[in-house]
Each structure stands twice: as structure tokens, then as C-alpha cells.
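The instructor's notes for this session suggest beginning with a concrete chain rather than abstract definitions. Hand out the sequence below and ask the class to guess, before any prediction is shown, which regions might be ordered.
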Amino acid sequence: MKKVMTYQKKQPAISNMQYTRRLLQNGKIQLDINGHIDNEYFEATAIVSQADADNGKVLNQLLTNHLLQAREKTIMLKKNKDSTK
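After discussion, reveal the predicted structure:
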């Protein structure tokens, strides 16, 4: 019998996530997000609808996704900066 090894991707540890809400003139909500992912600080901004901002489950997913995207962008920028040296 053949054994198959499966690898689970480690989930990033998100902590101290905070956000502020600002109502924009077009009726959308701007979320300024900050928090730590694996003990590194990241910031992000998201523009969402009022309905999404009022839905707790959707809001939490949006906050998490935008913070993770900020981390990915930072990683890419660091790689590009290191490759130009």
C-alpha cells in the first residue's frame, strides 16, 4: 500500500485586529484596518457597502482578507526590493 503525505498549510496567526469606520459621500463605508499577522504589524484600507459593514460575519471575513492581502503585498515588495540589490 502506498502512503500519501499531505501537507496542511499553516494558518497565519492574526491578533490585535482593529478597524475604524468612516462614512463616505457615496454611501459606502471606508474601513481602516490594522493588526498583527504572525507578530508583524500590517495596515489596510477597504471600501465596503453598508450592508457588508453591518453583517458581522461578512465584516470579519472582509477585515481578515484585506489584512492578509496587505501582508502579501508587503512580502512581494520586500522580494522586489531585495532582488534589485
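Then share the key points. The mean pLDDT is 88. The longest strand covers residues 14-23.
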